[in-house]
Amino acid sequence: MGDLEAVANEVIQKHLKDPFDYEKVQFEVLSTIRYDPLLYSGRLSLPEALLCSPLDQSFFLFLDYHVDRLNETAEFFELPVQKLNSSLLVAQLSQALDDKDVYRAHKMRYLLNKQGHVEIQAIPINSPLNLDINCPPTWTVYLDSEPTIISPFTSFKSTYRDHYTEARKRKVPPGVEHTDVLLFNHADQITETSICNIAVLRNDKNPLTGEIITRWTTPSLSSGCLCGVTRRYLLEKGLICEGVIMKSSIKNGEQALLFNGIMGVAKAVILL
Hints:
Elements: H1 3-15, E1 29-35, H2 46-49, H3 63-76, H4 86-96, E2 106-112, E3 118-124, E4 137-143, H5 152-155, H6 162-171, E5 179-184, E6 190-193, E7 197-205, E8 212-219, H7 229-236, E9 241-243, E10 255-260, E11 264-271
Parallel strand pairs: 4-5, 4-11, 8-9
Antiparallel strand pairs: 1-2, 2-3, 5-6, 7-8, 7-10, 10-11
Helix pairs in contact: 1-3
Protein name: Aminodeoxychorismate lyase
Organism: Ogataea haglerorum
């Protein structure tokens, strides 16, 4: 059993009082992967590289992280599917881009159903990629008014999003861009937003020196949040750390980092 599966089972035992029968839920496993010609870092020129089949792996943001998460998710839900590797995923994604404008960035929606069938949708996007945490605030995030029930569908990404949809209905004004809702679980721990992982500035004490360091802190996976690929990247780079963030600690007007696998990183202001 992989690390993410172990965490998901821990979340179920910790947060779900009633048995959760995900076999009765209609869903597909989902990963959204950014294809972007600006990411290319191979040896060929860009025009030459875009003619290759399959495409170079560097065109796809955090591809190896997506492979790991998709394998963990398929194993958790016991789906009858061949185990992915980077070469296979690149080949599948490249095929989905065959008739597309490969000079444009695309959101690649990788869908895996319960029968093990894979569908990939390539959707053109105009949003630039940002991985710099020192960016100005351009988003607004509203703290939800009700807790979200934590389940395998918060720990793993899928098309079952009723809990996120309901949270957005409660707090996000219709038709407003760059706006999201900040979720918390029944233990009053902050988890994530409806489309992003999140980090806020919190004080962290060095256990050896006693020094207080202010760091961007993201909820641990045991809170029930999604195991996001950009979250993993920022953690491995040491740009954020994990910790428990209580709902009561959130201050009106404080800033937060939002991050996902399509836009990268953005900064938001939290409104209570």
